[in-house]
Amino acid sequence: MTRNQNFSLHERLAKDTLSLGRSNLCEIRLMNDQTWPWVLLVPALAGMREIYDLSPEQQRLLLNESSALSRGMMDVFSGDKMNVAALGNMVPQLHVHHIVRFEGDPAWPAPVWGKQPPMPYNEARLAEFKKAMAPVLSQLCIV
Description:
This protein is of the alpha+beta class and 143 residues long. The protein has helices spanning 11-16, 56-77, 123-140, and strands at 17-22, 26-31, 38-43, 81-85, 96-101. The protein has a 5-stranded antiparallel sheet with strand order 1-2-3-5-4. The longest helix has 22 residues, at 56-77. It is globular and about 40 Å long.
């Protein structure tokens, strides 16, 4: 799939996340909060706000990429539940959150948003995350 030339990452996503690469359809972004394994897929297409804005082919690709990411994250982190959500209340650009949840985590069983200030990754923790996720990302990433 060709990347949309007019695509640009929303400034809030750019500020709050770190790049993990790019898939056929999406920018793959790590939420800069080491409390939870939390990765976003952002379709690299200008003007997308909702999943239904994508073509049927793009919707299938997003579902396939989301499913592969979800399965891979659960395999790597052995969570109790995978939360997948496309909310967009704060950032209108279409993006899909993938958050591994654990019984007893700081927000369990409630949503993670606003429960505590983010704990940004340091270099060592970021390297650990990327190493753990390398097999998953190698299946998804083209760049």
